[in-house]
Amino acid sequence: MRAVDTDIWIAEQPLRFGVIELGARMTVVRLGDGSLWVYSPIRPTPELCSRLDELGTVAHIVAPNRFHHLFAGELAERYPDAQLYLAPGLRKKRPDLTPASLLPDDAPKTWRQDLAWVFFAGLPFANEVVFVHRTSRTLLLCDLAFNVGPEAPWLTRATFRLWGHYDQLGPTRFERLLVRDRAAARASLEQILALDFDRIIVAHGRVLETAGPEALRHGFSWLLPAES
User: Fold this and answer.
1) Is the N-terminal amide bond of 104 cis, ω within 30° of 0?
2) Which residue intervals of the chain are DSSP H helices?
3) What is the mean pLDDT of residues 199-216?
4) How do residues 18-46 score in pLDDT, each as one tens digit?
5) Which residues have a Cβ under 8 Å from the Cβ of 169 and sit 6 or more positions away?
6) Which of the listed residues 12, 105, 205, 218 has the most CB atoms within 10 Å of its CB?
């Protein structure tokens, strides 16, 4: 686990998707009350949990879309006093993840001091809820965008070249085809772009340390209206 800014850390583990190595990244935020908020959990190894315990008390565990849930239950078992939050559609997919609150409706108002969030509509394949950590001006994404570059294994690089989005931040052709309501997706993207962020942490690929809004706008230019 490493700090990326004040009160925000990331931890990474290997993760394969079929035959390609994507890697997985978890983000941890220390909220204003001192508790820890965990976004997109990775496997809770003893080493990882020891580091979390050094940082504070895990109070909130967020599974932010229909795919980043694999280790949410394990982390909730490790921290039974923490509240688990699920993206829309996950209750049906993972009925074993109980008790749990539903994002974004059940997000506590107390989070608003530290976090802003947007449900990305129009893409039911993912049903992703994205967050911005206010003090570090960091946008957190899972599968809405990737940022795979030269540091990735050769097969991963080749796959993302084929998928049409290598060495730049954005979705692949696969995600584009799965958008079911372009107007709703465009409105969600505009809500995200209206938030105050600079850095972008993605679950797969490189962290983008600066110029996040410009990179996000470029990556989703196919969804936005053409500039006159």
Assistant:
1) yes
2) 46-55, 72-78, 90-93, 154-162, 173-177, 182-193, 212-219
3) 97
4) 778 889 999 999 999 999 999 999 999 99
5) 145, 146, 147, 200, 202, 205, 208, 215, 216, 218, 219
6) 205
Distances from the Cα of 90 to the Cα of 18, 95, 101, angstroms: 22, 8, 11
pTM over 0.85: yes
Q: Which amino acid is at 102?
A: L
Could you tell me if residue 226 is inside a domain? no
Pairing of strands 24-30, 2-5: unpaired
Give the residue ranges of DSSP H helices in 79-124.
90-93
Largest CA distance in the chain: 55
* Domain enclosing residue 22, as ranges: 2-219
The first and second tokens of residue 75, run together, are 């982390």
Residue 225 domain-assigned (yes or no): no
- Does residue 224 sit within a domain? no
Q: What is the CATH number of the domain that holds 213?
A: 3.60.15.10
Domain count along the chain:
1
Query: Rounded CA gap, 142 and 204, in Å?
Result: 7
Domain presence at residue 228 = no
Q: What digits encode the pLDDT tens for the residues 121-164?
A: 999 999 999 999 999 999 999 999 999 989 988 888 898 888 77
Provide the token pair at 217. 């706008």
